[in-house]
Amino acid sequence: MDHSPDRARKSQKYLGDRGLIVLIALLSAFVPLSTDLYLPALPGMGDYFGVSAGLTNLTLILFFLFFSLGLLFWGPLSDRYGRRPVLLAGLAIYIAASAGCALSWNIRLLIVFRILQAVGGSAASAVAMAMVKDLYDGRKRESVLALVQSMVVISPAVAPVLGAFMLPYTSWRGLFATLAFIGVVSMSGGLLLEETVPSRYAGTVTQSVRRLGAVLRNPGFASLLVVFSLVSTASLAFVSASSYIYQGGFGLSEQWYSFYFALNAVALISGPFFYLWLSRHVGRRSIIGAGFAVMVAAGLLVCLFGSLGPLFFAFALFPASLMASCVRPPGAFLMLDQQKEDTGSASALINCSSLVFGSAGMILVFLDGSNLVFSLGAINVAVGVACLLGWTAIGRRGLVRF
């Protein structure tokens, strides 16, 4: 696919440039919005249905699993049929499934609708990053990726706070109704969207899906994919364990939990802007390497001091969250830059791999349920070391165009 400078400057007739970026940010935020909004209600939902925390947590774990699988279907399909029709079909499923979640009368039915919600929502994430590659090049693409991701991580800050403040006035059902409304807003933007894909893949649907393999055979893309996906192992381990650490371990209320969770989200919000500032003075390779090293150091701080109290835990984890967010824009830029064609497939693999590794983190953090704080710190140390070693090996072997 040809990515000419002229096309990179093409404006959307109805949405405009700013409206397009806002839509892409909203579509990219479907994962945190669909999980973080109801995190404060997660322990209470187990009590409502009379089931264990493990069964309640399946509404999170299976969501991420099927979201990941859905990406591998919708991404290649968007190369074949275009971003817009895939987006609209996925949003229709998401809206209906969100309504079904709100009306569920037992945990198993809720899990089924969460799976359908994941399948529909994955279409939004699959096309969002692909549209950035469709429309922007070079430094502009990197800046848009940073801006979009900074807007995306606002949702982890806002969603738990909003969810916690909604709970006194509504139940967890109202939170899922809110997600249905967000889906309707996104559908409105999707209807105004003009197609962004420059040229469509001419093969069959089966051949389109097989392009995933062709992308994975690119050694530069594949090596970067593993390194940057590992970061999500630590990030989603925190998402999964946060309510149990703050509410169960430290005895905080739902409202206080949301504030501490938002403190961590401030680091995520600042990361992309911090990268844009650093990149004016320091090279991309050095920033990424330093980011992984900081994750190791912060993980050690969590292991040593995180159990002393919620404030110690939050501030010890803050640098790891900051740098995990900081390395995402250059990581996404480098991965997209390695693949000149099959943008939808590349975008799907980036998002899917991130969620697969993240789902592993959600399971790993609970293996030692007696000390979730230490487990989370240890995961950050392990992830930081693995990423630093992988990043060094990629540089030495010259696998990637920097």
| Terminal CA distance | 21 Å
Low-confidence stretches: 1-9
CATH superfamily: MFS general substrate transporter like domains
Overall pLDDT level? 83
Domain Major facilitator superfamily (MFS) profile: 20-402
Protein name: MFS transporter
Family: Belongs to the major facilitator superfamily. Bcr/CmlA family.
Keywords: Cell membrane, Membrane, Transmembrane, Transmembrane helix, Transport
Characterization of the model:
The protein is mainly α and about 400 residues long. It has a single domain (about 10-395), classed as Growth Hormone, Chain: A. The chain is built from 18 helices and no strands. It has helices spanning about 5-10, 15-30, 30-35, 40-50, 55-80, 85-105, 105-135, 140-150, 155-165, 170-190, 205-215, 220-250, 255-280, 285-305, 310-325, 330-340, 345-365, 370-395. Helix 2 packs antiparallel against helix 7, helix 5 (about 55-80) runs antiparallel to helix 6 and helix 12 (about 220-250) packs antiparallel against helix 18 (about 370-395). It is globular, with a radius of gyration of 20 Å. It is a multi-pass membrane protein. Its main location: membrane. Keywords: Cell membrane, Membrane, Transmembrane, Transmembrane helix, Transport.
